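Late entry, evening session. Most of the bench is empty. Finally got around to the prediction I had been postponing all week. Sequence below, unchanged from the version circulated by S.P.
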Amino acid sequence: MYRTFFVTVVMLLALASAGCAEPPPGGEPSWSNIFSGSAPEETQDEQDFDPGYLTPATPYPTVTSGVAGPTLSRPPEITPTPDPYVTIYNRTTQFNLSHSVEAFSFDLTAPPLIIDFEVEPKMITREKHGTSDYGKKSEGVFKQTYPSEDSWFEVTVRDRESGKIVAQDGFGKRYSADIRKRIFVGQFGNYLIQFSGNDVKVHTVMRAGGV
């Protein structure tokens, strides 16, 4: 009897609960939150995290006017640097058996003394029987052009009193085959400058630090 009464009471309570309350629709806060009075907890994305190093500021104003074109101006005039040296000799000379040497004296009171020379040797052309080094390496008569073995040139700078050689260089013989060279004398002195050679045409320029 008590068991039948207990089951009847449970069924009545279940029907009463179904008629008085409905489950909350999706997206609305749960009943436990409503009764507790607390707001739903929000989640924060890690990418939106602001550590506080930046300070909000006003955006830079946007320029609405037209972009100005480049302005053309003349480059500044560059004043050429004056040559600190004085040209004391500038000549082209042919050296051969009839004119093989010439000399000049110069008192160098403002060093340095710079001697630039360019040699044009006598060229010899000869025919040679042999095999070509190019293409199909055919045999035949070939022409070869090279400086004459008799072509040479020498510049000698001596102390005028003692005769001691201060500087010396040249082309051919015991010197190299470079056709352009420079001699530099950096000491004060009274010098004898001598040019000698054979089967060459030489352009020589001498400059000093001041006279």
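Two things to note before I forget:
The chain is about 10% helix and 40% strand.
The beta strands are 86-95, 101-108, 113-121, 123-131, 139-147, 152-159, 165-171, 180-185, 189-198, 200-208.
Will write this up properly tomorrow.
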